[in-house]
Write a structure and sequence with these properties.
51% strand; five-stranded mixed beta sheet; elongated; 1 helix
Length: 588
């Protein structure tokens, strides 16, 4: 009995142990199959192997383009944006038994993708195009393409490969071509397409205008223009942007301007210009300097004659002239402005029919320079300096010194040779021709008269000399005695020269105007003569003795002689001859 129970226990234990061993051996091999259900549409199905007692608890698909899915099967669409021809698909499977044992396996397979049809768009002309253009579109695709679908972005479509299309409005359109090939694969291309409608316009200087007007036409556009074409509707044309034109007869003219843009658009505009028998207002003017009268002269014309002129000077003033006020065809008026600046002067004329026309011009009034100068006063025969002190910009100077001399320098000088009062005039002018002048007087005083007198011009060494000065309105005296000694007195103290010689004595005086004069004279200081003589011997009584003067003198000729013979009994004891004879009465 015991043995039987033991056999049953062993059998049960072996059975349980076999079951435990079978469930503990987890094994799974992931795998899958796929099939195509359309262009780039693939269906994936699980075909994994796993051990008995296990079941799939989690299955994840990784499609190779960033997307994923779960489940034992999945369908996935590969976008046309994927340019590669294959993808790596990964399948991850997890299995588990009832005891919670699990294991995971991953399988990766490279899946080929179908090639999408090639699609490109071109056009003739290329964008940008003109609104008036009909565009030929071309669909450049793979040979396998079976259908074309165009969307022009303006609610219009086409299913031909190379359609023609005309856009009804300007703008930028996304032209799209969607193609499908014979295997069901599709692709598309988007072609940004700009449609423009450039415009031109023009203005005319006067409208209505007169048959006498030369009209200025100005063409304008917001785009780059290659060429301009005008038709003035009177047989005349022009190819410049801003032409001048004169109509010879009255009437309404449909003037047309056409242009060619850089993308070959040809915008056109037409305006009517009315030509009538109107007056043509015009005027000229002369002058532009502040404070000077500005002369305005009518230059208007009219086939009917002008009967009224109204001038508006731009500063609030105006002048009205009527035909009864004037005696000339083109009257003139004068106007003086009180401040500088730019003034818009308008002349309005009225003809005999009552038609009015006006003309406006910019008149620039320039400020005058303010002439002024300073004078550096000088004495007669000295240089008088003149310095320009004009306020304002000046480029021309004209001086008149009142003595016949002139100058065109800015700062200048003049030497007057005759005393008197002179009117000096300075005229200055700026680059605009505006001038101003000023006159100032300059007084040129006479030089003071000076005289020298002295006790004598010749004196012997050791003698004193007395000098005297004479002059009017003198404030300073300056003596130069010719040897370095000086004096500042009118009449210096008696002066003794320290040596013999000839001296140039000069007296310079300065008067109350600062003018100076001088006078000179010569003083000769002589050495004393050295007296000497010789005589002949007396041999007999009553013989005369001859005396010979041998005096020496360094200055001049001896002029007087005074002999004394020491013979008091003689009636001729003295002689004034240079070489006398004498009879001594008492003998030798």
């Amino acid at each position: 009995m015991e043995g039987l129970r033991m056999k049953k226990f062993v059998l049960v234990f072996i059975t349980i142990l076999s079951s435990l061993t079978a469930f503990s051996q987890c094994d799974v091999t992931a795998n899958f199959t796929y099939s195509s259900t359309g262009c780039r549409i693939l269906h994936f199905s699980d075909s994994s192997y796993y051990a008995t007692g296990y079941s799939i608890t989690n299955a994840v698909w990784y499609f190779g383009d960033g997307d994923s899915a779960t489940g034992l099967s999945a369908t996935h669409y590969y976008s046309n944006t994927i340019k590669s021809l294959s993808v790596d698909v990964k399948y991850k499977v997890t299995v588990k038994n009832i005891y919670g044992d699990s294991c995971t396996n991953t399988f990766t397979k490279t899946i080929p993708l179908r090639t999408l049809p090639v699609v490109n768009i071109t056009s003739d002309p290329n964008p940008p195009v003109c609104l008036s253009d009909t565009v030929q579109f071309y669909g450049l695709t793979s040979p396998s393409v079976a259908s074309w679908q165009w969307d022009f972005g303006d609610a219009v479509s086409s299913n031909v490969q190379n359609p023609l299309h005309h856009f009804a409005d300007t703008g930028t359109y996304n032209v799209t071509l969607f193609v499908t090939d014979s295997s069901g694969c599709s692709n598309q291309s988007i072609y940004p397409f700009k449609v423009e409608s450039p415009t031109v316009d023009f203005s005319v200087s006067s409208n209505p205008a007169s048959i006498l007007d030369t009209l200025q036409f100005n063409g304008t556009s917001g785009v780059n223009i290659l060429s301009w074409s005008w038709n003035f509707a009177d047989g005349a044309t022009s190819s410049v942007q801003n032409p001048l034109h004169t109509f010879s007869t009255k009437g309404d003219y449909a003037v047309t301007l056409s242009a060619l843009t850089d993308n070959l658009c040809t915008p056109t505009v037409t305006h009517t210009v009315s030509i009538q028998s109107l007056p043509v207002a015009n005027f000229t003017y002369s002058g532009r300097c502040l404070g000077d009268p500005i002369t305005f002269t009518d230059a208007s014309s009219s086939p009917n004659g002008i009967k009224k002129w109204v001038w508006y000077y731009g500063d609030g003033d105006s002048t009205v002239l009527r035909i009864s006020d004037v005696s000339v065809t083109h009257p003139s008026v004068n106007h003086t402005y009180i401040t500088s600046g730019t003034y818009y002067v308008t002349l309005k004329v009225t003809d005999a029919n009552g038609d009015e026309r006006s003309k406006t011009k910019n008149v620039v009034i320039d400020a005058k320079p303010q002439a002024d100068f300073s004078i550096t006063q000088a004495c007669l025969q000295d240089t008088t300096f003149f310095q320009d002190q004009t306020v304002g910009t000046v480029n021309s100077w004209k001086w008149n010194f009142g003595d016949g001399h002139t100058s065109i320098a800015q700062d200048t000088a003049n030497k007057y040779v005759t005393p008197g009062s002179y009117s000096v005039k300075l005229v200055v002018m700026n680059t605009d021709g505006c001038s101003d002048s000023i006159v100032k007087n300059v007084v040129i005083d006479s030089l003071p008269t000076v005289q020298i007198s002295m006790a004598k011009n010749k004196l012997c060494f050791g003698e004193q000399e007395q000098f005297y000065g004479n002059s009017q309105d003198t404030v300073t005296w300056h003596w130069d005695f010719g040897n370095g000694d000086t004096s500042a007195y009118q009449n210096p103290l008696p002066y003794t020269y320290p040596g013999i010689g000839t001296y140039q004595v000069t007296l310079k005086v300065t008067d109350i105007n600062g003018c100076q004069s001088s006078a000179s004279d010569t003083v000769v200081v002589m050495d004393h003569p050295q007296a000497d003589f010789s005589f002949s011997s007396q041999r007999c009584v009553n013989d005369s003795i001859s005396f010979v003067d041998k005096t020496t003198s360094s200055f001049g000729i001896l002029t007087s002689f005074n002999w004394s013979f020491g013979d008091p009994t003689s009636t001729a004891n003295n002689s004034s001859q240079q070489n006398p004879k004498h009879y001594f009465s008492g003998g030798p």
